[in-house]
């Protein structure tokens, strides 16, 4: 009887040891996954809480459409499709700000949006299967934390990388989590890349819902730039009047080819503001040294239309520059 009791105790202790060992391995795996997630991702809702995201204007319809898809029972993974520079990433930033403000359906309150750095994950992966293992560890960390939405810019790279290297398509790593509903993603890509890399992958494509992001009209682009104005004024310590914003949109829309609003107009404002800030800095330095040049006398901390025009002229460094239209 005593011998049987000892055997029972030994079996119980053995099972308990196996349970503790399995739990320890599971916790270590979760910690590795969380570490991988932290290393290769940026929490956009946390950045929004710190005031690190720009104010978004003029993309209310696209943000609303994205919310509708996220709230679906199936096929609840939005794919933002649009030309480079039209503001696909800005839509995700706007959504993160709405989640932070609680201006979302109850099911999404308390969620966070995490942006995945796919290039960082791909870096220094030399051997077959190494990239897949790194992605699996990353996804383990993401899916271990509830109410996390994963944003993947350049989403087509998931399908592109595998075919380019001749390895297992890395998009396959995502499919089990998407099928089980353990993972929600927001992707962003262009029409060309979608047609070339995503649409042919029917198993991946059917789990996504497209959100079309068109280039804004000049009028809407002006609204967008006015919303961004305080951030650029604070950064460069200059003033940007309405007519300079309107000139940036008008000139970029008319003269700059191969790029899209609002990105190309924002670049004009940014560079013109930097130019004015440098001129003012030199003026202040010259004044403090008691040496005031003629140009320094007229330096102002205001971005004027001529400053925008100067930047456009500088971009066209050659008469046949493909950047500018005739």
UniProtKB/TrEMBL annotation:
Domain AAA+ ATPase: 74-214
InterPro entries according to UniProt: AAA+_ATPase, ATPase_AAA_core, ClpA/ClpB_AAA_lid, ClpA_ClpB, P-loop_NTPase
Transmembrane parts of this sequence: 6-22
Residues annotated as signal peptide: none
Gene3D superfamilies: 1.10.8.60, P-loop containing nucleotide triphosphate hydrolases (3.40.50.300)
Molecular function terms from GO: ATP binding; ATP hydrolysis activity
UniProt entry tagged with the keyword Methyltransferase: no
GO cellular component, as recorded: cytoplasm
Keywords in alphabetical order: ATP-binding, Membrane, Nucleotide-binding, Repeat, Transmembrane, Transmembrane helix
Example of a GO biological process term: cellular response to heat
PANTHER family from the UniProt entry: ATP-DEPENDENT CLP PROTEASE, HEAT SHOCK PROTEIN 104
Protein name per UniProt: AAA+ ATPase domain-containing protein
């Amino acid at each position: 009887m005593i011998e049987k009791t000892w055997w029972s105790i030994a079996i119980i202790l053995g099972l308990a040891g196996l349970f503790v060992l399995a739990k320890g391995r599971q916790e270590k795996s979760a910690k590795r996954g969380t570490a991988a997630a932290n290393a290769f991702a940026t929490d956009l809702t946390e950045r929004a809480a710190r005031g690190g995201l720009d104010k978004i204007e003029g993309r209310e319809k696209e943000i609303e459409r994205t919310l509708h898809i996220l709230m679906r029972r199936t096929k609840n993974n939005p794919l933002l499709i649009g030309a480079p520079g039209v503001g696909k990433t800005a839509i995700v930033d706007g959504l993160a700000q709405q989640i932070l403000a609680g201006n979302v359906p109850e099911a999404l309150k308390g969620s966070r949006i995490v942006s995945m750095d796919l290039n960082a994950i791909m870096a220094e992966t030399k051997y077959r299967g190494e990239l897949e293992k790194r992605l699996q560890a990353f996804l383990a960390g993401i899916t271990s934390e509830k109410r996390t939405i994963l944003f993947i810019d350049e989403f087509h790279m998931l399908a592109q990388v595998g075919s380019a290297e001749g390895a297992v398509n890395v998009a396959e790593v995502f499919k089990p989590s998407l099928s089980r509903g353990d993972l929600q993603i927001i992707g962003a890509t262009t029409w060309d890349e979608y047609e070339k890399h995503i649409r042919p992958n029917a198993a991946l494509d059917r789990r996504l819902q497209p959100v079309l992001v068109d280039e804004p009209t000049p009028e809407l682009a002006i609204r967008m730039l006015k919303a961004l104005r305080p951030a650029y004024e604070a950064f460069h310590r200059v003033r940007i009047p309405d007519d300079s914003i309107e000139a940036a949109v008008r000139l970029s829309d008319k003269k700059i080819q191969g790029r899209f609003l609002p990105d190309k107009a924002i670049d004009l404002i940014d560079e013109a503001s930097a130019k004015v800030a440098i001129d003012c800095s030199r003026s202040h330095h010259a004044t403090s040294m008691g040496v005031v040049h003629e140009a320094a006398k007229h330096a102002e901390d205001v971005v004027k239309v001529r400053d925008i025009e100067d930047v456009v002229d500088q971009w066209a460094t050659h008469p046949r520059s493909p950047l500018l239209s005739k």
